[in-house]
UniProtKB/TrEMBL annotation:
Its main location: nucleus. Component of the GINS complex. It comes from the Eukaryota. It holds the Pfam family PSF2_N. Residues 65-171 form the GINS subunit domain. Keywords: DNA replication, Nucleus. Belongs to the GINS2/PSF2 family. It is found in: Nucleus. Signal peptide: none annotated. The lineage of its organism: Eukaryota, Metazoa, Ecdysozoa, Arthropoda, Hexapoda. It comes from Chironomus riparius. GO terms for biological process: DNA replication; double-strand break repair via break-induced replication. This is DNA replication complex GINS protein PSF2.
Length: 203
């Protein structure tokens, strides 16, 4: 997926809002949202929440996982577990970026939240680089004990290496072909030299 497509997917995530207006239910392709009643929370697609927030018609309620204690626990779990842990939201990076950009005032302790999310992302990226290195050098295990798994990677994280992996795989395949051809030519030369040596000693 392109970055725009990833953002489109992230914008479809359901998010809570508290509207400050009254309005009838809205019928969308993805389903019906509303009715909207001032002061009563409800869940709507993130793209609609951002649209209403820009018009100052609602306050966005951060998702449950966007909590300092929850993110701190997730960070420690991610550090402790060799493989990728299951994230509370598959679109956590995109959802965070959109909320931070358009509704930063609605997120308590936003700077700490940003730091925890960045730390979690960095830890997972380090794991991803290690896993890719292990894959390409033929290692089957990480740290000599635990086998690497790509399970629980999010679409955004996969996108960060999508363009690199095919290029790297193709480059390694070409290098292996060159090495095999070089070895084959070297063996042919050895055999040829052996033949001429044997022929010379026969005279």
């Amino acid at each position: 997926m392109d970055p725009e497509e990833l953002e489109f997917v992230g914008e479809s995530v359901s998010i809570g809002i508290i509207p400050n207006f009254n309005f009838d239910a809205i019928h969308l392709i993805a389903g019906t949202v509303g009715p909207f009643k001032a002061g009563l929370p409800l869940h709507i697609p993130l793209w609609l929440a951002i649209h209403l927030r820009k018009q100052q018609k609602c306050r966005i309620v951060p998702p449950n996982w966007m909590d300092r204690d929850i993110l701190e626990d997730k960070k420690e779990e991610e550090k402790r577990v060799p493989n990728f842990t299951s994230m509370p939201c598959d679109q956590y990076m995109i959802v965070s970026k959109l909320i931070f950009s358009h509704a930063s005032e609605d997120v308590p302790s936003i700077e700490e939240i940003k730091t925890f999310i960045k730390d979690i992302y960095d830890i997972r990226q380090a794991k991803l680089r290690t896993a890719i290195d292990s894959f390409f050098i033929g290692k089957k295990q990480l740290d000599g004990a635990t086998q690497v798994s790509f399970t629980n990677l999010t679409m955004f994280e996969i996108h960060t290496v999508r363009s690199f992996l095919p290029y790297a795989s193709d480059l390694i395949a070409r290098l292996e072909r060159v090495c095999q051809q070089h070895t084959s030519n070297a063996n042919d030369t050895v055999h040829s030299n052996s033949f001429f040596t044997s022929s010379s000693s026969g005279y």
